[in-house]
Input
Amino acid sequence: MVRAVDISVGTVPAFSMAERDRRWDLARAFMEREGIDALLVFGEHEDAGPAPFAYDTWFTNGRAGTTVVFPRDGEPVSLLPMEMFTKDHLESARRGDVVWIPPENLRMPRDSRAIIAALGELGLEQATVGVVGLEPYPPWHPEGIVPHRLWDAVRTAFPAARFTPAGMALSRLIMPLGPEEIAVVRHSARIGDAMVRAMVGTAAAGVPESEVYAAGMAAGYARGTTPAAMHFWTGPAPLASGPPPWSYRPQAPRVLEHGDVVSAEVFSNAAGRHTQHQVTLTIGEPHEELRRAADVARAAYDAGLNALRPGRTFGEAVDDIRKPYADAGGWEFGPAVHTLNPMIAAGGFPNDASRRMAGAGAYPPEDDHRPTMAADMVLEPGMTFALEPNYAYGRHLAYLGGTVIVGDDDAIELNPYTARLLRAEGSPTRPA
Output
């Protein structure tokens, strides 16, 4: 029998004007230290999916996909892509929602002419402007997100201004979350667990994989959030990570069979604060090699709980997390840990799939080793991480873990439920 899932929303934490002031004060102090007169912050389209470039929402508490001009002295201006944003802002204000940017500080559109006008309006023709969006944001934006034509027009209009990349420095500034943000992350983590439990309660032999996917997403929607499309593969030994192929190619979803594995990465997103949940779900007894791989991944997970403590560097934590792999005799599929809120750093790993996967030699060569990003970053309380160790023997891949917060002394584990192999609990479909 499929287990019933409670879909009550419960108490939803919110961001107050005090949280707005905390963030804006941080930004102004940052600009003062860096000798910056203003920040120009580009935001990505609101339907960008996992790991979005959404720094604009940190300043606005509004819809993603805007451009923000934040002067060190004065009020920020938010440039909107279309009229629907103003209509949503008006309706939110009418309903009594907490909106951070008043209507007199909204502009349209957000093309180069609007940016030029906003910079001129704020008297920044000869200013030093920190730009968020010029620097690489892997993997989706290896050269930044700012369009060349737009940027060329802005620079041409202000030849006396100095534009300097500020995204990475701002990222590290905002990674330690405040108390209100941590409450939202905890809420997001609870929703993510509910999504996974719904998948476990649906999966069974004879059930289309799309029904398992739908059960997880529905559990997220029912709890008042809009989760990003999950990474989701099934099969006897799936060795891939990405959206299900029927989401981008016209083909039927697989029907689950006894002995299958559901390998998924579940993305919960509550009010722009993200959590991740790694799922390795078996239909029946797991293969012995999968059990072995899960034991190694679990050892790495436990090492991560001990390693993600304040005062250490991210690189030191990554090294500790990967120690259980050293003599295990299998192979590492991908990074075991990366930052969340925002996603600016990921653990390094040896990318030797071409030697491990049959047929991989026909594909473009991969780097032999991916180094740890931002290895020098010092861990601080309030930082959030996806702790997702993975290990494989042959084709049998175990991917475990969830979201962890760096506490005042030790790591705070939010999702122990997904830090282990899971077993399907749905009702098998019987032939007529």
Summary: Residues 17-174 form a domain with the Creatine Amidinohydrolase; Chain A, domain 1 fold (CATH 3.40.350.10). The chain has two domains: 17-174, 179-423. Residues 179-202 form the longest helix (24 residues). The first strand starts at residue 38 and ends at 42.
